[in-house]
């Protein structure tokens, strides 16, 4: 198979690229290198089955230039990270809306299946324990910039759904819950690489808010094979799937664990949300997936624990 991966130089995209090449497939990676980097692809540059194209998903000509001979598309390219969304809200909204529309158009024109990466963020402030794919979305004001990411991704899902229903496009939508692992950078806000970097530097770990908010983190090596399995499974087309772990931690506990695992002398600094993200910021207090649907579809069952994840990120940062 020859796959197009948008966002192929990003954190998840680069792991997916390696995984597919390892299975003997060919990969074309389209990336504008806004948050992704060629360093992420160092292990595959020069591989006979790999081609990198620098370009934006917002540019239909760039997208079209990648489509020749493509059998299926993973659309992962997006403006990501809370800091990115807050710093460049309008650009991010455009990328996340128009980029997806362009990819859906291209997939339709070439009649190839497409996996669209959405996000667990679309559930917003719904704190139900075990969010199923049909759970309600509880989203704050459209004038609060944080929610623009969730809004764009939700509209992407609706677009994908309508392309499937109205045009018969073969689509799969996934909602990853806090995917982490080697190569993820903390520069755009993601908490685990930030804590690990701070701990290794002996700096205080910045816990935003009271630290009692919870998340479930899932190793990228558990997520990537699931993406491939879903896009390879015709009976998954037209559906949406949560992908995540159910091992919960509060952010305060996470900070303590990172300090213990690194043997760091760092302290923990509580930082008010306003200071971290600006005035009016709303966080999600709890976000736990129910992944029964993905389990029943492809046997999805993450095997890496939070300790495994922290160890992997620490090893990555140290190297
Ligand atoms: N967070 C934190 N310190 C940091 C970065 C993030 O306490 O230096 C918190 C953030 O406010 C959120 C949680 O960690 O409650 C997860 O943040 P991340 O941006 O990684 O993911 P998301 O908010 O999208 O779940």
Tell me what the structure shows.
There is one protein chain. 39% of the residues lie in helices and 18% in strands. Strand 1, helix 1 and strand 2 form a beta-alpha-beta unit. The longest helix has 22 residues. It has 319 residues and is an alpha/beta fold. The strands form five sheets. A seven-stranded parallel β-sheet has the order 3-2-1-4-5-7-12, with helices on both faces. It has a domain of 221 residues: Rossmann fold. Its cofactor is NAD(+). One of its GO terms (cellular component) is cytoplasm. This is UDP-glucose 4-epimerase. Keywords: Decarboxylase, Lyase, NAD. InterPro entries: Epimerase_deHydtase, NAD(P)-bd_dom_sf, UXS-like.
According to CATH, the homologous superfamily of the domain at 2-179 and 219-244 and 287-303 is: NAD(P)-binding Rossmann-like Domain
Q: How does the major sheet shape up?
A: 7 strands, parallel
What is the CATH topology descriptor of the domain at 2-179 and 219-244 and 287-303? Rossmann fold
Strand content: 15-25%
Derived structural class: alpha/beta
Keywords: Decarboxylase, Lyase, NAD
Organism: Amycolatopsis saalfeldensis
GO cellular component, one term: cytoplasm
Cofactor: NAD(+)
Provide the fold topology.
Blueprint (H helix, E strand, L loop, with lengths): L1 E5 L4 H12 L3 E6 L18 E5 L5 H6 L6 E4 L6 H6 L1 H22 L3 E4 L11 E3 L15 H21 L3 E6 L2 E2 L10 H10 L4 E4 L5 E3 L1 E2 H12 L7 E5 L4 E3 H12 L5 E4 L1 H5 L10 E2 L2 H7 L7 H13 L1
Parallel strand pairs: 1-2, 1-4, 2-3, 4-5, 5-7, 6-15, 7-12, 8-11, 9-14
Antiparallel strand pairs: 10-13
Bound molecules: uridine-5'-diphosphate.
Uridine-5'-diphosphate binds next to helix 6 and strand 9.
